[in-house]
Amino acid sequence: MAAKRPFFVIVPGASHNASHYGLLSHLLLKAGYPVFSATLPSVGAAGKITAEDDGKYVRDRMILPVLDHEEHDVILLSHSYSGVPASAAGSGLSKAERTAAGKKTGILGQIFLAAILTKGGDGNDIVTAFGGNYPPHIRPEPETNLLRCDDRIPPLLQDVPPELADVCAVSAMAQGMTSFTSPCPRASWDDEAYKGKVAYIRTTNDACIPFPVQQMMLDGSGVDFIVKDIESGHSAQVAQPEKLTQILLDLAKGFEGLEGEEN
């Protein structure tokens, strides 16, 4: 059965690495879904890695190898900051567009977990999109081109068991500042090819991207997202991995069902 199922391609958020999605990946694997994840180039990078650079990495090193080399469909899951580069990476790679181009595989759907929704393509960056200020938990350090969070647990891991929260906090890294101050690439979540195939999971107790901000982004998107809620803080993948897995499996089955109907 796994040979026929799509890959979950999990794109970590800012400062996160692929290990922070290990519990979630394990549960998805146990449910029979292949998983691939990798850390974004901007994580821990003092060099000038842009949001567009991250998007190219997601496209060329995470999505296309699964589509073209492994010949599996993809369900794209992005978290927090990665909603920006991940959705840009999905442009032109929907199943419908790839089928029209004679390809066998494509992206069945995009899922955003407490993720940033910006249309992009207008020259504005993430900081501008949020009113020109960094969130209070982020401390910019221009001399090193890094964004630092001096105490990562309150905004990111406040509802995670203490020992797990501690190790996740320690294994997170400073984020390259340029990823937040460079123009956001054009997203694909509002493309016609993804109509009915984009979902947003709201984290109702989020201290990093608060629930009202998530709703504001949804309201401003102009798109009818499939919306699900999970009672957790920002890092639902470690705070509520079982509940999050079930939400993802339900969404995946919906996307797979849509693909079957279209064929």
Automatic annotation (TrEMBL):
InterPro entries: AB_hydrolase_1, AB_hydrolase_fold, Sec-Metab_Biosynth_Hydrolase. It comes from the Eukaryota. Pfam families: Abhydrolase_6. Residues 8-244 form the AB hydrolase-1 domain. This is Alpha/beta-hydrolase.
